[in-house]
User: Fold these one by one.
Assistant:
Number 1:
Amino acid sequence: MWLCIFSTATIDAHPATGIVVDSIGNIYFSDLETIWKLDAQGTLTVLRARERGRHVHELFIDEQDNIYGGDVSYNAATEGWISDIWKINPQNKFTYLLEPTTNPPPGWGILRDHAGNMYAVEQNNHTKTQTQILRRTPDGVVTTLAGGTFGHADGRGKLAKFSSIGGIGFGKDGQLYVTDGAFVRTVAMDGTVTTLADNLLFRTPEDRPRLFAGGDAGLAGLATDDAGNVYVADSGNRRLLKVSKEGQVQVVFRSEPPYFPTGVAKSGPNLYVLEVGLTLPNASSGPRIQRIENGKATILATVGSGGSSSDPGKSFAIQAGVAAESTLALLVNEGRLKYTLAVITAVLVSLSVLIWQHRRRSRA
């Protein structure tokens, strides 16, 4: 029974990492199916209404405050995946750049540079055969910027290797920055890949790792600042990491259960963190946004807690998640798991012996 609880709880959805901030301080973020807008006055509204089964994982914003996203949904009738790319301009006009299709052309992505080139990650985390970053020019020419067979290797172009890319974004220096397994790596525009920092999944005594991380226990979204620092959401360890341009790492923020960070945006001196809460049995407690200003974290909005985003189910899930994780943490954290399992095993063995003896007496 105990093992069944753990097995079921590790099957969780891949949460959204998309959070961006425009030039006047409006924050946009995805809760996987809904795109929300949190304006500079703190009012939370729906920018794009949810459609059940349609997932929006990442967002990108350009210098003109156009917001880009991509949809992924499953069509049961055709048993195929449907994807598209869209844009919402500052006047809230929605436009498909790539219409919904079951066969998207290579290189289409939401990330784009000043020249209009698009960048997309091509990978399959199930087969783990190859991971590539493709570049598509405005006239449709697609090339492999970097990457080849699945693995880890610095180098240029197809000589470089990636494992599983979680987050990707441009730095102020014009390079791409990616989270790749336990690494943060840079990709120059000539395709040269360099590992900036490794072993980022290390744990400290202050960490409160997720009990039920499933396949999302690694590094997620990232953002950069003008000084070349990279801020990385470490979902499995419920923390935000700062990686300097020299590769030095420090923890700058920790989430409280049941929340964990999935995305981060940098605007001016402030950091904005997208957090998600997953609770037993794999219920989402809704996202929330925190602002980190001068090292102090302030909750700006919580979807499911009230106001225009009120959702009693998610509000209940938040409370239930806190209670569940707090209770189970007593058994799991600080090395107690092995002792707990030992006690449970002893009890089960004792019960088995008693049942066997009872049956033996009955037969006698």
Number 2:
Amino acid sequence: MSMSPQKSLEGRVALITGGASGMGKSSSELFAEAGAHVVVIDRDREATEGLVAEIEGAGGRAEAAVLDLTDLDGIASTVADVGERHGRIDVLFNHAGSVCAPGTGVTEADWEIAAAVNLKAPIFMTQAALPYLEKSDHASLIYTASIAGLVASPNSPLYSALKGGVVQYAKSIAYSQGPNGIRANVICPGTTDTPMLPSFFSKDKAEAEAGMARFLEKVPLRRIGQPDEVAQLALFLAGDASSYLTGVAIPVDGGYVAG
């Protein structure tokens, strides 16, 4: 007997990085509504603990894990703590990311921080979680990349390079870990209504708005996506409805990459 969509993650343990804001927050809330025990991983203590309180107040199950994803020891200890206490990890959603320096004149410091958050962190989160994912009968790895991981980013080649790396890493994990029953898939959002969105276009508010307007002219649906539209895909990839789906990168972009 299959479970209702509303409780498609009942009893499962799900870790979500960057889980306290934007698309990550929507995913944390939706996963909890679906019955998961959600581990909200974020560096913002106030937002993380506040979201956990909201989830629990609504009858869901969640815990806060305040973590700077540039701390590799912190990644290892946080994942091990969750895995040992629960006996397994069912879902790891590597969602956290950051904007990157624009143009071709990036500094070494630009590279270090961008690579640490966008590529290094999900790789080390995955490595730490694999022994516990192997103990699950429903193991699902999900990565947030970007449409910039599928097509060129004229504003930030560095961002495209790193997000392209996420896509290829996830596909490689899907291929190598499939025999262990672990699936791995990638979500590639386009323009999505989150606090980080304007910074992709400019630090200046007026320039950012103008840049978004020009970009939306190339989006067939002619609108910005909403965080819950990404979260719904994450929920699908996390649960059994996608049980034969692995190694794919799915754009959630209003049709932008179709052009």
Number 3:
Amino acid sequence: MSRAKLDGLRDELKRLERVVVAFSGGADSAFLAAVAHSTLGHHAHAVTAVSPSLAGAERDDCRTLSAEWGLRWTAVATHEMERAAYRTNDIDRCFHCKAELMDVVGPIAAADGATVVLGVNTDDLSDHRPGQQAALDAGASFPLVTAGFSKAEVRAVSRTLGLRTWDKPAAACLASRIPTGTPVSVGLLTTIDRAEAALKALGFVDVRVRHYGETARIEVGVDELDGAVAARTAIVDALRALGYRYVTLDLEGFRSGNLNGALSP
């Protein structure tokens, strides 16, 4: 285990003294929440932003993890769908989403005398993620970056600490399945959530259902491609029941964030 980096993370959290962790339940935010809790106790507050862009299963897992780990936890509603700039879904959609997050979580942190911290790791800095700038502009901090944690190191140290989230598949917000320029709606996010839930119920782990009008483009892990072909009838039936006319399988397999910057299908 990278003991030096873990010690560095704890030192950074101690320097901040009180933190509100933006807790989505993914490997990064879960690791940060767990370490913050073990380091700061009640002065660490995990807050989950609940909106149509958060998959129902992820919301439920945040609640479960908080109970398992004894976290001080709050779920709050965010309202990014009320922001026209978010619904438009241009290349800066994530900026408007994080701005809404900070508008909602910021007052909670202010009441606690705390700093909002996000589970951004060093690998995230190389991707197109305008939301990071929105968070920084609003006073958030990225302790994993300060301590030098990559995604692989987050997973490795999480495993050593016995956190069951160490190998949890990435679960970006549901809006990331919608190509840039296609408007975001609650109905569309709900359809995508149900589509991915149907595939997971069939046993697939790394899943994305990319929305292109009447077409669903499915991504699963490369090692799951054969299984997807074998289960094609069940997959097609499940997605057609949700309104898709065409169901396709991406032979390149799952790639996180592969729609970033894409202006059209």
